[in-house]
Fold this protein.
Amino acid sequence: MKRVVLSWSSGKDSAWTLYQLQQSEDVEIIGLLTTINSGFNRVAMHAVREELLEEQAKAAGLPLFKVPLPWPCLNADYENIMRTTLAMLDIKHGVTHIAFGDLFLEDVRRYRIEKMSQSDIKPLFPIWGSPTKELANEMVENGVSAYITCVDPKQLSENFAGYKFDKIFLSELDDNVDPCGENGEFHTFVNAGPMFKSDIPITIGETVNKDGFIFTDLMLAN
């Protein structure tokens, strides 16, 4: 039996990876692993509030392992922090594998494999190689509800920030934009889906331009 922790970004690819792991008979899901920007108390890159992240873990019925990162964070610091985290997961929780929601970026996959080779924990890529157009539609058709939290305006119009990830959104994307945002065009937050036991009510807040990216703030609805 694989004892798996899932690298959790709060977005749709992580959520769909969780759903796939939940269908596997040889997997025990130990928890969700998320890096937090400690300067802002938000999920790194997706900029999702920490309280929303915690609600996702509750909805999934899984422990949440938070990894605070300094801001700014050098890559060497990040790797040292993750090395310590992996050792803790191995020793304290008996984790044997860490799963990633990567789809087709070979350089990212190689980097993960290389870094994981320094640990006793092995990498898993449950949705690797999935055709992203079909995958995006499959997510929506199976009840995944997600919102665009971050847009790279160099690759996608900033007007899409705050959009719901649905059939309408997918139909409006240019051909050069990956439907799953695998090239960093956009990032998402999942508030409902077959991987969760309950939905997470949210409200959409302000949209800001920060460090060249467009971020839309999401909040827990009262």
Summary: The CA atoms of residues 63 and 69 lie 19 Å apart.
